[in-house]
Amino acid sequence: MIREETVFGPIFSRRLGSSLGINLLPERGKICNFDCIYCECGWNRDGRAETLLPSAEKVRTDLERKLIQLVKEGTPVDSITFSGDGEPTLNPEFPQIIDDTLRLRDLHYPKAKVSVLSNATRVHLDPVFNALRRVDNPIMKIDAPTNELVAKINQPAPGYDVARVIEALKRFEGNFVLQTCMLRSPDFDSSDPTVINGMMDIVRLLKPREWMVYTIDRPTPMQGLEKFSPQEMKALVQPVIDEGFTKVQIKGAVEDL
C-alpha cells in the first residue's frame, strides 16, 4: 500500500520519465471518489488514518523547497505530476495549487511538463476544468465504456455517469490525454469485443491528442487480476492506430511499444 508525502520523488514513471510527484491528499491516508480494484494505494477503507488535506500554502512551500534542492543537486525533472493517494481534484484549493505550481515550474524547471492524473469525475466543474486546461498534460481516465463495467473496475462514488464524463471531456477539444487501464478478472475482460470496441468509439469521438493504454504493474488490492502484454494491447487497439488521428502510447508491465 503506497502512502506519499505532499511532494515526493522524483521517481521514474513508465509514462512520464523522471517525475516529481505532488500528493494533494492526506500523507497517511487516502481520499478518492473511485475505489479501483487495481489501485496501488489499496482500498479506500484502509486509508482512513488521516483526512487532513494539504493547503495551497503547504504545497507551495514544500514544492519550492524541493525544486531548489533538486536544482542544486542537478537532478533532472521531466514532469511535475499530480497523482498521490487518490483523486487530486478533490482538494478544494486545486485551482490555486495549479497556479502556484506553474509559476514555480517556470522559475526552476521551465522545460518540465506539469501533468495531472485524474479520473475525470470533476471536469464538468468550471474551476477544475479551467485549471486542467492550463497544465501541459491533463491525463484523464476512462477504463470502460459502460457504467456497469466502470462499477466493477473503478467502484465510483454514487452519481458517476460515463456519458457525463465524455460530455465534459469534449470541452478539451482534443487537447488532453486519455488513459485506460486494461486488465482481466474473473468477472470481466478488457479485451472483450464489446469493451474494446466501446473504448475505441470513445477515442474516435473525443479525439484526444494521445491515448495512453497501460496495464497493472504493482500489487493490487483485489486478488486474481491479470495483466496484458504490450503485444496484446497493441493488437487490440490496432484499428485506432491504423486510423492515425491520435497517438497511441502502450505501456506494459515489462516492456513498452
Percent of residues in helical segments? 25-40%
Instruction: Kindly state the number of beta strands.
Output: 8
The topology string of helices and strands comes to: EEHEHEHEHHEHEHE
Largest sheet: 8 strands, mixed
Which spans of ≥5 residues are poorly predicted at pLDDT below 50?
253-257
Strand line-up of the largest beta sheet? 1-2-3-4-5-6-7-8
Average pLDDT score: 91
- Shape annotation: globular
Number of helices: 7
Which structural class should the secondary elements be placed in? alpha/beta
Report the sheet-strand fraction. 15-25%
Terminal residue distance: 28 Å
**Any idea what the radius of gyration is?**
18 Å
Describe it:
Mean pLDDT is 91; it is low at 253-257. The chain contains seven helices and eight strands, in the order ββαβαβαβααβαβαβ. α1 runs parallel beside α2 (94-108) and α2 runs parallel beside α3. β1 and β2 (17-22) form a beta hairpin. Helix content is 33%, strand content 18%. The radius of gyration is 18 Å and the shape is globular.
List the helices and strands and how they pair.
Layout: E1 7-13, E2 17-22, H1 56-73, E3 79-82, H2 94-108, E4 113-118, H3 126-134, E5 137-141, H4 147-153, H5 162-169, E6 177-182, H6 193-206, E7 210-215, H7 230-243, E8 247-251
Parallel strand pairs: 2-3, 3-4, 4-5, 5-6, 6-7, 7-8
Antiparallel strand pairs: 1-2
Brief write-up:
By secondary structure, the chain is of the alpha/beta class. It has seven helices and eight strands; from the N terminus they run E-E-H-E-H-E-H-E-H-H-E-H-E-H-E.
